[in-house]
């Protein structure tokens, strides 16, 4: 199953190491792939270093695409995580 979600970063510090860790920790709970896009850049949502290359700041939109078992549930949890400021 392939699912997608777009959310805006509300955290004033943007996508720094701690939020990247939170996203990866959540993604690793599921048996599915996770891609995260910001502008033209795409990162592996299961890799902290890859996510940090996005350099996403407050107000940036993150497009999450998950595929595999639990993809929809993962995206809903990611929506809450990002919308809540990580």
Question: What report would you give on this structure?
Answer:
The protein has a 4-stranded antiparallel beta sheet. Helix content is 34%, strand content 33%. The chain has 3 helices and 4 strands, in the order βαββαβα. It has one domain (2-83): Histidine-containing Protein, Chain: A. The chain has helices spanning 17-27, 48-52, 71-83; strands spanning 2-8, 31-38, 41-44, 61-69. The longest helix has 13 residues, at 71-83. It is an alpha+beta fold and 86 residues long. Helix 1 (17-27) packs antiparallel against helix 3.
Quick summary of this structure?
This protein is of the alpha+beta class and 86 residues long. The chain is built from three helices and four strands.
Return the CATH topology. Histidine-containing Protein, Chain: A
**Helix count, DSSP H or I runs of 4 or more residues:** 3
Radius of gyration based on Cα positions: 11 Å
Q: Report the sheet-strand fraction.
A: 25-35%
Distance between the termini: 26 Å
**pLDDT averaged over residues:** 94
Instruction: State the helicity in percent bands.
Output: 25-40%
Q: Quickly give the structural class.
A: alpha+beta
Strand order of the largest sheet: 1-4-2-3
Shape estimate: globular
The helix/strand series, from N terminus to C terminus, equals EHEEHEH
CATH class: Alpha Beta
Low-confidence stretches: none
């Amino acid at each position: 199953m392939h699912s997608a979600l777009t959310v805006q970063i509300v955290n004033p510090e943007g996508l720094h190491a701690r939020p990247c860790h939170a996203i990866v920790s959540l993604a690793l709970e599921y048996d599915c792939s996770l891609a995260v896009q910001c502008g033209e850049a795409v990162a592996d949502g299961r890799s902290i270093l890859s996510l940090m290359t996005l350099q996403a700041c407050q107000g940036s939109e993150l497009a999450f695409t998950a595929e595999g078992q639990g993809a929809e549930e993962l995206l809903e949890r990611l929506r809450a995580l990002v919308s809540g400021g990580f």
